[in-house]
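Deviations from the work plan: none for this task. Representative record:
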Amino acid sequence: MKLPELDGRTAVITGAGSGIGRGIALVFAERGAEVVVADIDPAAAESVADEVRALGGTAHAVQADVTERESTDGLLTASLEACGRIDILVNNAGVGGAPGWWERSSPTPEDWEATYDVNVIGIVNVTSSFQDHLQERRAGRVINIASAAGRRGAGGFAHYSASKAAAINVSQGFALQLAGHNVNVNCICPGLLWTPLWEKIAERDLIKSGETAQTGRQVFDERLERSTPLGREQTPEDVGKLAAFLASDRAKNVTGQSINLNGGSYVN
Amino acid sequence: MDLSGHVAIVTGGATGIGRAIGMKMAEVGADIIVSDIDSDACQRTASEFAALGVRSAGIPANVTDPDAVGRMVAESIGQFGKIDVLVNNAGVAGAPGWYDHAVSREEDWSFTFGVNVKGMAIVTEAVLPHMKEAHAGKIVNLASVAGRQGRPTLPHYSATKAAVINYTQSLANELGRDNINVNAVCPGLLWTPMWGEVGAKYAVNDPTYEGLSAREVFDKMIENIIPLGREQTPEDIGDAIVFLVSDDAKNITGQSLNVDGGAFLN
């Protein structure tokens, strides 16, 4: 007995060409939503849209750069053309720094700028582009993807942590702003997931420590062992399932919350 | 969402929020043990759940009495063979008549702590050996938005709900390696019998609400503190708990989820 909880809903997911965004798109499609797979990399977006179609779902691939308001306005137009209306917006696009950040032992001004531009302003741009549409319909759900790193400062990764803390705060701001229009805004703080981002974090840790005997996956597993009471990694599907809950009728009175999905590594 | 084959105990499960939690879980197939201090009410609510086609039994217990709780848990396992889910919902706002007093009395502090915190620990301790042995389990504790931030009027109650959030965190950390998830839900404003008392208290003690009926106080408070502008319902709390005890939330533990229309942003 599976609730078709997102049947008939339409969802836009940014950064959906890989990792967590892809996981969210697949879970949403499995639960009945029509999805717009948005990514800066059009080939990646198309490939995930194909995966959704292969599962029997409906998907549209759209290229979008969340750091450019013109591009996010274009995402709105393309989404409305494809789906007619949008019920759910998932702001998932994120970066760990400027290109090549994982090869640097400490963040440069470019890394600070890139994380702020994508992880914070990206949410602001996309949400602003979609805001009027959601408000007019007096319905809608916005779900932002922050990080466990945004809950607590991280040594050596301060630029990323700070941007994710800002993402949590921005979610609260939009929640208050949109509550009067019956639009709920929540946020998810994922913990340890073996995604392309974490592969690079591990690579960076290995470069910093000069360790050659270890693999990136071992770095990840050690962190997991140290920090996670449940003792297991979280997955993009986990994030998709929490996002599906937040997008469903079941969470109609949940707004302004940032929910930790981290196996217990940080609790509040 | 499918909980068929799962067995859940809900304390304070006969009425109000507890009943709605049991109902939501039963609707997706869970077998429900309705525990409550009121024996007749237990049986009545269990019959309602059984009518949905799940197994249900009313097994009364006073959560502040370790012996009674031990018997309730033993009887639950005897009848159902296992316990997958424990929802610690039993709670009180103060000692009987608390709302007639301007200031919390000693008995309000001891009574709320006894039921809301110690009672929760007593039931949890009774269920834990079973869950540990099964190397699986889901526990959800009912806290309150009052536990997120102290407010005037019922400090004794708020303090116990803050304790519930904290207890949830300790337990989650301790039980992670036993594959037991422990989370809490913090309801916001729900028009329950308890809020009838809370409203009466505000009308007497807070100039903002002076002379209003309890329901009027409630409505005004929604207007003042709930961004979404509407009350939450027992069903909302049941929905959140069904999610938290389902496989969808298998990697969520130690968290307290506010279901409060945005009153407190966590």
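The two ends of chain A are 32 Å apart (CA to CA).
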